């Protein structure tokens, strides 16, 4: 018997709810996007044909509400409380001891541990399983009605799945913007010359406060639930962790990194583990929330005026702080790039004390509108270079002047030029400029180039300042006596550096090309050029068109390389290097066998245990692969170790092959 329209639409809606749950809650989609779109349009077509069948909880109704004039206030039936904070292990131990005393016990307390997402706290009210209202936390008693906006977020079910949920269920959680979505949003904003968001939390908050829900719908928001509020007409499990698991079964997203542990020591171990992985997670977190897992114990412990006694947030070191710009200087790099650097009032952020940060170029200075004396927000996440993300304009003092690009190099006084098609301004002094000399030699000696162990930046600064060297070739004329005369260098250290210099004479063509510091010629490009031409002589003779036959070498790179090899002083340095013993073996390009991973692009992410990431990159490149820093449709495979975050997620979204460390080692062994 043929199904009625009501039966058809009910079945199709059920399919969409299932697909949404698998995709947004379980992170395990079972059908391609095209199939989801097919079912979605089938439901929409049936609803358009018979509007009386359209329901507020239909998946087609996530966007469609008219823009609001403003947000109405909502009074929470159960207060949304704040959390007390622990800033160190001693604070948490005191918390744990206090709870044991209040509960009259001396055995370990069982805690539910959850990452503290850096987003916006919200309340979702479900009546008979259907989303009725969404509200912000506000002051804990009164928030704003954001129902039209939360309905646009795919990970928030409009209707709970399954059965057994209470008649009235208030779910509480955090709405946030994943890092990958935040980066993509700001990339697009830059392309359109629109305002960028400062950080993912501001992005989430700004997106939720849009009066037009269609704007919110375009923002890549997600929601994780972390507790419940009002519950009527039904029962929930006896442990907090079990409540979250039940919410997950009803279609709500929970954090996959949540855990249950016993005792204060286990809590600190969890805190340390998540802290190490913090920068690999797909979202920003600013600490860990520890909650007594037993609901009965929670009820016995109760509340203080603004916070529950049974929960505490243990914060990570702040990744954003306020400080002031005490000065802005201009530094000169090895290619003559003039870079503005902000000197900051020292501030502890992201686990280190930050006293200066690059401003990159004048375009960035103008975008930020940063001036000496400004109060700024500085951000440092993990090993990322500290950056100024915004200026607090309200705190700007009168008389603060715009920064002006110098007309002359601050080191050698040569004219400064800035091409119309470049953001970077450059000193025209070339090797006449001592700053460029120093930076070029530092690059030449660096680990990925000639790898001269012990020849640090301060030693090179002294060698140039004392006129013992002028370019990289002079390194190979240095003796123990000259090096031992430098500050903090004894005879033994000097002998070690000379030995490292002599060892560096034996190299490879690609490392030598990279060490020369040619603009836009990085490790991968140097390797491609060496494999394409086989010898330095062939590269010196190549014209622009021949250079562009090399994979990944376009007109701009070819022009830079061609110009470098036509400059007489560069050829003099190259000749001197060879005369002083630097050598390599040429590559017989006629006999080169095609490498097994030729033409394939790999990305390595996460932590590897038996092999370093740099070694993994070198091994893959030796097999012919290109190793990129980001995932795209051109990526062939992603090597993902523990802690892999947004790159792994993007690879899974794009259907790209993913292997773990064992898979990588097997791949390497297979082609040895």
Automatic annotation (TrEMBL):
Its cofactor is Mg(2+); Mn(2+). Residues 592-672 form the BRCT domain. The active site is at residue 116. The keyword Nucleus does not apply. Pfam families: BRCT, DNA_ligase_aden, DNA_ligase_ZBD, HHH_2, OB_DNA_ligase. The keyword Manganese applies. Its EC number is 6.5.1.2. Zn(2+) binds at residues 409, 412, 433. Keywords: DNA damage, DNA repair, DNA replication, Ligase, Magnesium, Manganese, Metal-binding, NAD, Zinc. It catalyses: NAD(+) + (deoxyribonucleotide)n-3'-hydroxyl + 5'-phospho-(deoxyribonucleotide)m = (deoxyribonucleotide)n+m + AMP + beta-nicotinamide D-nucleotide. One of its GO terms (molecular function) is DNA ligase (NAD+) activity. NAD(+) binds at residues 33-37, 82-83, 114, 137, 174, 291, 315. NCBIfam families: dnlj, PRK07956.1. PANTHER family: CHROMOSOME TRANSMISSION FIDELITY FACTOR 18, DNA LIGASE. DNA ligase that catalyzes the formation of phosphodiester linkages between 5'-phosphoryl and 3'-hydroxyl groups in double-stranded DNA using NAD as a coenzyme and as the energy source for the reaction. It is essential for DNA replication and repair of damaged DNA. This is DNA ligase.
